[in-house]
Amino acid sequence: MNLTRAAGSAERASVIGLASGKGGVGRSMIAVELGRALVRHGKTVLLVDLEIRSRSLAALVELTVFNEPDFYAPLVERIEKTGNSSLDVLQLDGFELTAESEDHGDVAHDLTDFLRTLDYDWVILDLPGGFELDVVSAFVSSDLSILVTLPEPSALSAASNFLRSCVLEALQRQLHLAPAEALLELMFRNPLGWCFADIYEQTSDSAQRELFVQACSRLSIGLLMNKVREGSESEQALSLCHAWALELGVWPRVLGGVLHDDRRWFFARRLAPAASHPQKDSIAGDIEEIVRRINPMDWEAWRAPRACLPCIDPAQNPAIFLDLDAGGGTVRQRYRRLWEGYRREAGLISFVLQNEARTDAVKLLEAAYRRAAIDDGDQSGAPLVSRVSVPPGQQLKDRRLALGLSQRELSLKTRVGVRHIEAIEAMNERALTNRVYLKAYLAELTKTLGLDTERLVEAYMQALGQD
To answer: Would you say residue 351 has pLDDT above 80?
Structure first.
């Protein structure tokens, strides 16, 4: 293929920037799987490794890791072919200057612009871990900025601080405006610990406040939760993004979660054609769902400013506060999903918000829900989930039998062990797992069986006296 587009061509490659704030979260594996999935959708993809010393991408796509690239050759000449004609790799030693960017200050921004001129549909940047200016600049400059993190403390802490760095970068780009300099002075006093409310309250200048709100709301960032171990961890991503929006003013969009699985399969099939993936390949399946959300991408909707949540009155604008336009069920269902994430004693949000802030967030959610329920015409005050006459465990069993599934077959479909299914159907409290895993198993079972997840999970926990 011709690696550069014709001069004056209106077509440009779309750049995906993958970042995390720290290493070890699986960015390179995600980059390769995203590339392979886009190839399956008929797209041409260039994977760009900006940390060549680790040779992560090269190893994962079966390129040699022993040859030293010619760092003096033009970037286009250093693009390497993989086993698939639609998937190429470019290994760089950090953010290198192109001929087009030597006279400019922001090397990372210029590099992303140069990559858009290459003759690919998508370019995926595997950005190094950390908060270096070039890393953050390349991330913010990407068309699709995806924050990759894990459901564990150090990764979530790094992700929070990376979002803070993105706000700083957005303001740095506005230094030609007088309010930006004053805002940055405030934020640099605590660059890795500021929250939106503190900065907003410390300045009474309306121009500074307006610029601050714009910088936060115009950051379009997606969240990909890697190595989730249960359905509930993936479900908490919605609440996690909501918490970041309250704390930092930046509201990431949830793109999806990738199941934590035995990763040895990856190396066993890395030479397999990119045009297909095994049916039992859960990670490729999760990535496939994410790619369906971004390909084709509604760029106008993606780039539209997000609400700056700390400035939203939940009683006046409940639909915005609960993010109802994002879809995902009724007012009650959206409220319940957010509420569950905030109320978990050891949930993901506990690594983002302190207890007092979480308590305040729950009160705001409740105010938004009450207002939204009235606006929706539901003024009955009925409980969120009503009890049912048939025991919920029996409902699961009846539905399974109606679909002609054995417990073993259901286990294969849901990855819930047979012994857990037996205990759940019998509602055998001695044999049931702990509350967190139980709710995750119930969610998987109900989704597979086509039952109302929220209603049945709530009824099950009520029946056990654990509501």
So the answer is: yes
254 phi and psi angles, rounded to 5 deg: -75, 120
199 and 97 share a domain? Answer: yes
Encoded tokens for 60? 């994962």
Contact in structure between 219 and 140 (CB atoms under 8 Å): yes
Q: What is the 3-state secondary structure (H, E, C) of the chain?
A: CCCECCCCCCCCCEEEEEECCCCCCCHHHHHHHHHHHHHHCCCCEEEEECECCCCHHHHHCCCCCCCCCCCCCCHHHHCEECCCCCEEEEECECCCCCCCCCCCCCHHHHHHHHHHCECCCEEEEECCCCCCHHHHHHHHHCCEEEEEECCCHHHHHHHHHHHHHHHHHHHHCCCCCHHHHHHHHHHCCCCCCCCHHHHHHHCCCHHHHHHHHHHHHCCCEEEEEEEECCHHHHHHHHHHHHHHHHHHCCCCEEEEEEECCCCHHHHHCCCCCCCCCCCCCHHHHHHHHHHHHHCCCCHHHHHCCCCCHHHCCCCCCHHHHCCHHHCCCCHHHHHHHHHHHHHCCCCHHHHCCCHHHHHHHHHHHHHHHHHHHHHCCCCCCCCCCCCCCCCHHHHHHHHHHHCCCCHHHHHHHHCCCHHHHHHHHHCCCCCCCCHHHHHHHHHHHHHHHCCCHHHHHHHHHHHCCCC
pTM of the model: 0.77
Nearest alpha carbon to residue 93 among 121, 123, 134, 61: 134
Q: Are residues 333 and 413 in the same domain?
A: no
Model pLDDT for residues 133-155, shown as the tens digit of each residue: 999 999 999 999 999 999 999 99
Rounded Cα distance, 272 and 260, in Å: 21
Q: Which residues constitute the domain of residue 328? A: 312-375
> What CATH number is given to the structural domain containing 189?
3.40.50.300
Report the alpha-carbon distance of residue 282 to residue 328 in Å, rounded: 23
Q: How many CB atoms lie within 10 A of CB 69?
A: 14
Among the candidates 322, 344, 375, a domain finishes at: 375
pLDDT in tens, 215-242: 999 999 999 999 988 767 888 899 999 9
Position 3 in a domain: no
Residues 368 and 415 grouped into a single domain: no
